[in-house]
Amino acid sequence: MLANSRAYGKRFAPLLAMLIFPVLGMIYAAVNRVHGRVWHLSTPLDRAVPFVKWFAVPYAVWIVFIYACLLYFFSKDVLTFYRAIATYTLCALVCYFVYSVFQTTVPRPALVGHDPLTRLVAYIYHRDRPFNCFPSIHCFSSYMVFRILAGSRFKTRLSLSLIGIGSGLIMLSTQFIKQHVLLDLIAAVVLVELVLRAVIAAESWMTGRTSVGGRSEEAMYGS
Question: What is the pLDDT of residues 40-69, one digit of tens each?
Fold first, then answer.
């Protein structure tokens, strides 16, 4: 029984890496306030995007979606799980640094009505203050889980479809409920591409692994 307990503990020990999220949350809380000049990155294209309140639903379930994807990665391949944690952490830290030196905001529409969706948007607006938008954390994390899955050995058509749709809806939600502008989304995608390549390069350097199934890690991730 003791041996089984130790094996069980060893099996699930990697999940302790997710304790980084409360730490990152505290750092975000520290920088999520006005601390100087605030920039506007809105373009005519952003102003042409309509406000669609039902997109508040995918926006609101974002963190549950990210955690579910991480747990799915853990169940399939611990290395992929660690890769996702490392990529998320580094991307988040880069975002926090940018927020501290280049703070942006997004104009929000006036909310009319008291229906459930309008109240959900109001709650999001209250909880997510309109600062620190570039790059978008919602967008980088949503794109990250799809990007890592797409380069994995365990991807299936079903998993790619489900996570792709979820990621796409969350990224679109940032635009349609006016939490972010297009440049926030683009910067998030570029950030993931750069950080993911750095994480994979570090893995190869530390482990000496240059290929998986006869294909290089870099080839799998499109570098």
Answer: 999 999 999 999 999 999 999 999 999 999
Can you spell out the DSSP letters for 41-106?
A: ---HHHHHSPP-GGGHHHHHTHHHHHHHHHHHHHHH-HHHHHHHHHHHHHHHHHHHHHHHHSEEE-
Q: Torsion over CA of 138, 139, 141 and 143, rounded to 10 degrees?
A: 150
Domain range annotation of the chain: 39-220
The count of other CB atoms within 10 Å of the CB of residue 139 is 28
On the question of pLDDT at 220 being above 60, the answer is no
What pLDDT sits at residue 215? 46
Sort strands 103-105 and 215-216 into parallel, antiparallel or unpaired: unpaired
Sorted by sequence, the CB contacts under 8 Å of residue 43 that are 6+ apart come out as 181, 182, 183
Q: What does R_g of the chain's alpha carbons equal in angstroms?
A: 19
Residues 74 and 8: beta-carbon distance below 8 Å: no
pTM: 0.90
Question: pLDDT by residue (tens digit) across 101-134?
Answer: 999 999 999 999 899 999 999 999 998 887 889 9
Selection from 221, 190, 214, 215 nearest residue 80 by Cα: 221
Give the 3-state secondary structure percentages of the chain, helix then strand then coil, rounded to 5. 70, 5, 25
